[in-house]
Predict the 3D structure of the following.
Amino acid sequence: MNMGTPPITATPMTTDAEVLLLAQWLSPAFPVGSFTYSHGLEWAVEAGDVRDAATLRGWLGDVLAHGAGRCDAILLAAAYRAESAEEVAGIDAEARAFAPSAERLLEAEAQGRAFAETLGAVWPGAALPALTYPVALGRAARVEGLPMVLTARMYLHAFTSNLVSAGIRLIPIGQTEGQQTLSALTPLCLRLAEEAAEAGLDDLESSVFLADIASMKHETQYSRLFRS
């Protein structure tokens, strides 16, 4: 398991190979099971809080800017900058403690474990222990020398895309409305990734109480398509 501390280059150059590697890691085809999680969205649809493309966009915008999106980007960046295995472990422990519900913790742990297992099987030099998903991705990007901001951008975009896909199935809305929603939220993903590069663990905070409650309610929801 590689938890070493490869140097951070001051101005890493983005290459086609780096973009394609991140695209592979964050593709729906990469077996982390992201399609099985809705991040509490399934309950929000059941409760009527999310009922069309406009309310989906508002819900996801809040989750990104004031909830898990921003926090995950900060955790990813912290794991990328960490200088020891002990520091990575501490960041991971904080990520677990910050999960607001059992299902949200499951979401982070299970995806991170699956990511690490596949990473070790395909890229043995980047093998990692079982970490929460954003921490694992941030550390893997550091080991492979991938740009931190680009990694955070693509992570946030993939996170949003997965929840848009869940919204298409749950509400339901059309594929075109889904793509319009994702396109509208892309600038926010870019901004949050840039901000995370300058933030630290002391900047972690969340104020999306309804989304957190939705993830708790989902645990006992009678009819479910998703694990969270």
Remarks:
- The two ends are 29 Å apart (CA to CA).
- The mean pLDDT is 94.
- The CA atoms of residues 54 and 181 lie 8 Å apart.
- DSSP finds ten helices and no strands in the chain.
